[in-house]
């Protein structure tokens, strides 16, 4: 049976420690001016030693459940987008499941680098649409600080840690569903432009491999603008609407120049593009659910609004989704309260 779906809860968690551009200038040869001009980033959050993708993801998920007025027992599938899992296995999603006390549910990770949340959300929506699951918890969570090369000024200035989560459930009878269209694409032939080795990487020369981010920034920049622009246009067409119908675009927060160039390409005014990368940097699969939580709780989304999500990352992987926002009743307030208390205490 085909069910329409909606997002009924949102939540985010950012670790307390802030690393500013001035702090970075003490670590590598860079400056606040250079980082702001080239990326738009002013500071990022860094996980504490006892935090990880699963602990941050679990906290974001708890907040999403609170905002949806649901209990852990209401969830029957947990999908985590992450490229910085707590370990090779078990999946970070199972650790989140355990932390929340969710039983009798499926839990697995998807790794599509910065597109991870979009892949996880598309997957969860289809589980709910098909009737295979009633309520899904979808998490994007990253501890990129542990795979950043802190001696490489071209990459270490870009990334940060954090987590966001949403609850996806069936829309009430007769109500329109949230997901109007989505498309996901990958091109593995450019894998060498952005990658990090892992413990099981092939190692024919026997040299110790470092599991750190390696990136061809200029090339990634060009690929990101082209892919995100094309995916955004296609998702809008597939949803049967025009760019003028998009109330807010929530893009993966990679680099302000990438976001501006993409918005210009698709003809979207900048004021309809949500930006928070100045405060958090690029948190990979966590950027979209964190931004969605902030946008919802700041009142930037009204029921019936068309929202465009668009992402790009290592793989290469990219995609876009058009959703109709169904509103989160009292729910946003819970997520806001938590989000603000996090901000205030840091
Ligand atoms: N501070 C000062 N100088 C720097 C720094 C730094 N932090 N980093 C690089 N430079 C220098 C370079 O060494 C180079 O010097 P040179 O001319 O003497 O060789 C000069 O600045 C220009 O370097 P470029 O790499 O050409 O600078 P560019 O304008 O391309 O900006 C950046 C670099 C910010 C990495 C940009 O290419 C970018 O954002 N690319 C997209 C990457 C991205 O967003 N990746 C995230 C993951 S993928 C995704 O999420 C989309």
What do you see in this structure?
Helices cover about 35% and strands about 25% of the residues. It is α/β, with parallel strands linked by helices and about 350 residues long. It has a single domain, classed as Thiolase/Chalcone synthase (Peroxisomal Thiolase, Chain A, domain 1), CATH 3.40.47. The strands form four sheets. It has a five-stranded mixed sheet with strand order 1-7-6-4-5, sandwiched between helices. Strands 8-13-12-11 form a four-stranded mixed sheet. Strands 2-3 form a two-stranded antiparallel ribbon. Strand 4, helix 4 and strand 5 form a beta-alpha-beta unit. The protein starts with a strand and ends with a helix. Bound molecules: acetyl coenzyme *A. Acetyl coenzyme *A (ACO) binds next to helix 2, helix 6, helix 7 and strand 12.
Summarize the structure.
The protein is of the alpha/beta class and 346 residues long. It has eleven helices and 13 strands. It has one domain: Thiolase/Chalcone synthase (Peroxisomal Thiolase, Chain A, domain 1).
Bound molecules: acetyl coenzyme *A
Unreliable spans are 330-346
Query: What would you call the quaternary organization?
Result: single chain
CATH architecture type: 3-Layer(aba) Sandwich
Strand numbers in spatial order across the main sheet:
1-7-6-4-5
Structural class: alpha/beta
- The tally of beta strands, per DSSP, is 13
Q: Could you name the CATH topology? A: Peroxisomal Thiolase, Chain A, domain 1
- Outline the biggest β-sheet: 5 strands, mixed
Distance between the termini: 46 Å
Beta-strand proportion:
15-25%
Number of domains: 1
Question: Average pLDDT, to the nearest integer?
Answer: 92
